[in-house]
Amino acid sequence: HKIDLVQKVLKNWKGFFIPYEMALYELKSDFNIIDLEWKSKHGYSPIEHMKTRMKTIFSLVEKIENKEIELTQESIKQEIRDIAGVRIVTSFIDDVYLLKEHIEQREDIRMIRVKDYIKEPKKSGYKSLHLVVETQVILSNEVIWVPAEIQIRTSAMDFWASTEHKLNYKYQGESIPEEAQKQLIELSNASSLLDKEMSKLRLQLLSSETDSNG
Ligand code: 0O2
């Protein structure tokens, strides 16, 4: 059944995905510009690295089925907001929220929803800040607003998430053994500790720099 749905989407929906690809071009360029500006002004940018991705058709169909969404372009447009995805990785936790503030005050991005899995991690131990946004895309004869999801997290959170994803991949469909789940939560806590200590060290160094500059 899933394969049928995937084939149906692939065959009839090519044009449907174009605005999402445009949104990714837009967001990628927005953040590259900010990165360059911050580096040139302050010698430092909160963006460590960034990746964009289009949701795979298979993952889209899986979400449509799980959420029992009607297979029409209109309902998918409304219900699924992460077809276009940007992931920004920062060195420090403060930079995650600095970027959020920056996004909030941009006129070409509308904040729709904030899912703060740093303040409230997922049961798995997953931590990240997810921003559901709409980004402005200027076409030849009109301006459109396209949904996208921006995930912002520290290198430590990103390391945990990508490694956990790889470990879980082996258990497709089934859940990972309970003992391993517990260990993953402990490792997630360890990653938070690393973030806290790095932030502390950064503050110490910044304050000693201010002291020595008078
Ligand atoms: P992909 O790349 O899309 O195939 P919602 O959109 O709010 O209705 P959803 O989709 O559960 O519901 O949103 P959520 O939880 O905000 O974001 C899902 C995405 O977060 C996942 O994408 C992962 O990228 C990431 N994520 C969430 N929980 C975990 C976790 O426990 N471990 C890891 N490694 N990543 C997680 P997709 O949809 O799975 O992938």
TrEMBL record:
Example of a GO MF term: kinase activity
Lineage: Bacteria, Bacillati, Bacillota, Bacilli, Bacillales
Ranges of residues in domain RelA/SpoT: 52-175
Source organism: Psychrobacillus vulpis
Pathway stated in the Swiss-Prot or TrEMBL entry: Purine metabolism; ppGpp biosynthesis; ppGpp from GTP: step 1/2
Keyword Transferase: yes
Protein name: GTP pyrophosphokinase family protein
InterPro entries: GTP_Pyrophosphokinase, NT_sf, RelA_SpoT
Keyword flag Transferase: yes
Key words, A-Z: Kinase, Transferase
A Pfam family matched in the record: RelA_SpoT
An individual GO BP term: guanosine tetraphosphate biosynthetic process
PANTHER family attached to this UniProt entry: GTP PYROPHOSPHOKINASE YJBM, GTP PYROPHOSPHOKINASE YWAC
Source species, domain of life: Bacteria
